[in-house]
Fold these 4 entries.
Entry 1:
Amino acid sequence: MTPDELKALVRTIPDFPSPGIQFRDITTLIGHGDGMAHTVRHLADHARKAGADAIAGMEARGFIFGAAVSVALAKGFVPVRKPGKLPVETLGIDYALEYGTDRLEIDPGAIADGQNVVIVDDLIATGGTALATVELLRQAGARVETACFVIDLSDLGGAAQLRNAGVEVLSLMQFEGD
Ligand code: AMP
């Protein structure tokens, strides 16, 4: 399936989770067998070309696509978790949201020094989550040069921010981010 056919499988829910947000819902994409398979194939092609040694995905929807790409390439998966979930001493990063802050954590032992870790997530909006993930993985010793997304809300500028941080950004489809 082409990226345009995949895009037609994404459902848009207006005013969720708050008024004015157009929520781009991947539930309908991942519930479609061919849609899921082709989405993962496109992402895995990007990650393979980028020379991934491992895949990192952010909780929760990054786990769906990241784990699938990791299986497709037979490379390890690094879960980037919400706080308090990992049972070991973690490396963490706090980052700003529109209102307040959030935190991501990883097990630093999951990354070998200099390993090329490719980030996979469902969607990039402002880029705050992805930038924090890049920083966290780099602090753990990873080389982070590529991030793959199913959806880019291109007018929100997240991809440009990642590129400024030296990360190549690949996305299967774009939507307006309003
Ligand atoms: P950001 O840190 O702003 O790039 O936001 C990234 C995360 O927020 C993504 O992983 C999405 O899961 C979620 N997100 C933000 N905006 C939307 C939207 N309009 N539709 C669906 N998910 C969104």
Entry 2:
Amino acid sequence: MRVAMIGTGYVGLVSGACFSEFGHAVVCVDKNPARIEALEQGEIPIFEPGLEDLVTRNVKAGRLSFTQDITAAMAEADAVFIAVGTPSRRGDGEADLSYVYAAAEEIARAMTRPTLVVTKSTVPVGTGREVERIIRATRPDADFEVASNPEFLREGAAIEDFMRPDRVVCGAESERARELLRALYRPLYINETPILFTSLETAELIKYAANAFLATKITFINEIADLCERTNVNVQDVAKGIGLDGRIGGKFLHAGPGYGGSCFPKDTQALVATGRKHGAPLRIVETVVDINEVRKRRMADKILAALDGNAKGKTIAVLGLTFKPETDDMRDSPSLVIVPALQQAGATIRVYDPEGLHEARKLLGGMVECKDAYDTCNGADAAVIITEWNQFRALDLVRLKSLLRKPLLVDLRNIYKPHEMAAAGFTYHSVGRPPVAPKA
Ligand code: NAD
């Protein structure tokens, strides 16, 4: 099959590359000339494990190409995917659909043959119908249909998630649309991956409901972690104890600094806005949004408390800035709240992130960038782990202790064991576990 992918960001590029790996001919389109020029020169504009190999292989095989020209991309396309951004609209938290609607108009103008228009962007219930209306209004003669195929991939594991998803959700209302989507996902279909066919609106809502549920699970365990800290209980034991219950499940029960990233924060807010608009307020999700917002600031307070409430003139070594490991994505990362709060309290921030520094630089100022975790800790009064990159999981504690002015570690990801840190001579604070002092 021939596919055009509109938007070549995290989702568009990964989906386009994976569809080409399935054997389809894919042309990825983007408005950003720098992005397309980089891709044409074999450079991958985002960090995603395995993506460079996948793109190179499929470009070489002649199945994957890049352009700024939507008309050329759609000339022979059977299906065109909309994978542009849907950020939060300033002020009201609703999804900003201007990129989606602009793409719909461009698609309408470029359409020369029967085409299935598939929304992969995360869009509020009702958006597919509006896309349909826009295309029809722009091109009353066009032969097209609109489907919804929300994407569930996680950054950092995006290729694996696309190639081996738990399920594929397709909002498609004619047999012709369902056939096309089945053909597109054929390698998964024959592997018996569940492919769920629904109405357009149902597919749109499934995506938001899934993200809101996961955000709720994270927020739930974060609040339990707060209670653990006051009752001398280890939240990891609680998470295990409840997660082994098949009705609950152990995933997304890691206490931490609050969820971030390009999806959960904006999608929970957009779902709240949709609920209000339709007179069906989602009070659980509203609370989740509020708690998560406050939590990031509270993590800064937790770090300051570990420094006896006084950060003036002190140096803090920050390990990790991205919202999670294995990505360079800084969107809504807890570090964007924590680092400025520490700076405001008078601290100097030394920092290292394996992939996020080039993005972080645009969003955070005044940090001393270091070359690795040890360099970051050199002469610092405390170290703080914000992102659980693998390379921070097995640091040489003897070396770390010798570099730090004081052996104080605040671990917002619980990647060390309290008793081991105490034995290594550290004062150690984590999330939802009792703090420990150095063992004499
Ligand atoms: P992104 O910002 O990384 O990429 C969007 C791209 O679309 C940009 O490169 C932009 O230049 C391009 N673009 C915008 N308008 C265009 C147009 N008219 N023509 C061509 N290109 C255009 O965004 P993303 O993270 O890939 O997210 C895309 C959508 O997928 C969002 O709705 C998001 O919520 C959803 N989603 C994201 C993830 C994720 O992990 N990032 C996971 C699942 C779903």
Entry 3:
Amino acid sequence: MNRILIGAQWGDEGKGKIIDILAAKTDIIVRYQGGNNAGHTVKFGKKKYVLHLIPSGILHPKKQCVIGNGVVVDPEALLQEIRMLESQGVSARGRLFISEQAHLILPYHRTLDALREESLAKGGMIGTTKKGIGPCYADKMARMGLRVGDLRYPAYFRERLEFVLREKNQILKKIYNHPGFSFKEMLAFCEKYRKPLLTYTRDTALYLYQAAQKKKKMLFEGAQGTLLDVDHGTYPFVTSSNASVGGAIIGSGVSPTLIDEVMGVVKAYTTRVGEGPFPTEFSGRMMEMIRNKGEEFGSTTGRPRRCGWFDAVIARHAVRINGLSELAVMKLDVLSGLPEIKIATAYRYQGKLIKDYPHAHCALAGSQPVYETMPGWNEDITGVKRWKDFPAAARRYLKRLEDLLETPIKIVSVGSKREQTVFL
Ligand code: GDP
Ligand code: IMO
Ligand code: MG
């Protein structure tokens, strides 16, 4: 069985935890988009890992992991992550494969990301992770990128780098008043990572095709979330890749006919990091309370996450765009102790009731949520193992989410550890 796992909100839904659990019954775990802007947390025993670029399945010693062609790879970040894993006794050797078609994030991408954000500080800032993700994907589309596999051909690589850098330096100097990068230093940077990177590189689409023929089970690990998708999210406050289901196909080279299930991961409430519209966002004490209780601080940048009520309008949009066949609901424990819990079931925009996600930035930013209120529960649910052990109010809340999203809930998470998971 092959499954795609997708964030159905604005990222940080708890994908890392679910990937780690599902990886146990999978052969190959595949990252297909994004880069080290992601931060996927896995906790077991007394250990905590935050993975940015390497699939979360790597923590299972016998599983194979793929970084697909749709991912953007910062060589420095990748090797740092490999070293971090090695220092904890986890080896990626012989079981991590990187697509030769994946694009390289080079230092000028990071610099451009930061400079652009700085220049937008007075208005229009996205609040990116400054990892160079946007500039790298922009180069890919503009056919000005360098790919991991290009490192195999030093003469060609040099020529391309020189050509690309000439344009980058013009932009850096003329628009951002930055001194630019010398060809020598950029080449030395790439040279330093050439060999270590190439030891992991192969034709991953062919590898996955052959694995599928041998009936190997594949799990596709989405990064970010549907509302951060460059096409289907809250544009322009999005990331620069397709975080929704299509990204898995394009970004891995695997045919959609091989996919059996698409699981959506949602938090029992909503969070977002960075700028952009967020209709159900809390304010004041409620924000502080949920942020602290849910430990809502970015896994990649440490920034405080914005928190709000569950938004069924955006989640329904994610259900439709991705064709979600099942749901994992995370962090239900964080809602314990609230006298009442709200769910946004629709929006009101300029006096009109809207039930379906409005694509226009102005419509979403100007929408007020229409809430349904449900009773909360006081019990600590962090030790619950079975459906029938949940307080009645928690069961009613989950049932309501299922009805509103017209998708069965398969997993409920009640804590960050592997064992704090209820399978329905
Ligand atoms: P991802 O990017 O979707 O993998 O999510 P992150 O790892 O960025 O953020 C999710 C955070 O919530 C991590 O710190 C997890 O350890 C934590 N977490 C996951 N599931 C639960 C849960 O059910 N309850 C609580 N309290 N924390 C959880
Ligand atoms: P995971 O995989 C939450 C957000 C950034 C910013 C926007 C664009 O851990 O869920 P970028 O650096 O990608 O150009 O930033 O996207 N963002 C995320 N938010 N979780 C993530 O990943 C994110 N990756 C990017 O905060 O608003
Ligand atoms: Mg995260």
Entry 4:
Amino acid sequence: MIYLDNNATTRPSSAARDAMLSAIDELWHNPSSMHRPGQAVRRRVELARASVARLINASPKEIVFCSCGTCSIHTAIGGVFAARDDVAAPNLITTPIEHSAIKAISNKLEKQRGVETKLVPLTPGGVIDLDALEKLIDDNTVLVSIQWANNETGVIQPIEQIGRLCKERGVLLHVDGVQWVGKMPTNVGTGSEEPTGPAHDDAAGAWIDMLSFSAHKFHGPKGVGGLWIRRGTRIAPVSPGSQEQGRRGGTENVPGILGMAAAAEECLEFLDDPAQRPEAARRRDRFERAILDRVPGSHINGPSDPALRVWNTTNIAFPRLEAEIVLLMLSERGVCASAGSACSSGSLEPSPVLLAMGVDPASAHGSVRFSICRETTAEELDQAIEAVVGCVQQLSGTISG
Ligand code: PLP
């Protein structure tokens, strides 16, 4: 099987698996217990927090463990609005291409608190229109929430410019980094050590107030996510309790947390190696180039410059074809890919993300997302190219015949 659906989830690494198994077998005591085994587990959870914090160069005290990326997003956005009952008619600014987790919490806030959601328009290619964002911010704007990288296209948003704008206007910025953290350098700048390697070669993090991420997108386990909250950010707990310094209640998922930390350490090694990420990017670039060259009429959804998309993602439109059929045929030939986000697949509607980016409906219907990981080999991609070209040629023959 050639797995090119890493934006849906990644395979847990063996280090993550070992850490989880040892937590299940040996570190099963409650980290809030006073006794010796409980305190031993507490120490391991705190070491894990430090590893996860290092991945984004944050202070460990600012990391809140959550149950997934969705939970992290809801804790951040819900928590900020829960803390701001001083604004009579508050609004949230976000984009039309966010993950459904953002839409779910904004709908809830609208119903329960009358929070208005404003959507920033996109420029062709899927990057937000910064002038439009500036105009949308007003005295009632409490929070701007924007994804760092899109799950369907890999398009990267200009977080540094967005963050500068938010600071000028005194508005908080939450970033959904679920498809970014672990794959790209991240530096929120509150870690105790001065970072030296490429893993933290990033200027945008300094402008962010809250960052959401999820372990299963970077070879960690499912069911555990992280929320980084910059010290001093006003936020109330959405799920109150004594754990996580009162910011998220509930006994910690110790196996998940230790698995996430092991995965974070490996991501740091990957990111700190100056060769590995560019090599992985070249594999993706070669894959997409080969398909575009061999399939007439196919094109990339998003900027054609691959550097403007996260190194692991490519979303290719095969106009006139139905993505679902392409995916089923690919699956029969041993290639796993997807269309739209995993959460909304199973529907025959074209992806709302692609439509919001201005992709025409015929192309959106026939668009397939391929997402590689750091372990995807050139040989696997060569086989996948043959499978994709073969499927598309067969289907195109059926249409024209
Ligand atoms: N945000 C983005 C951009 C995502 O791609 C996903 C998952 O696909 C999420 C949030 C939700 O993360 P989780 O699956 O951990 O809840």
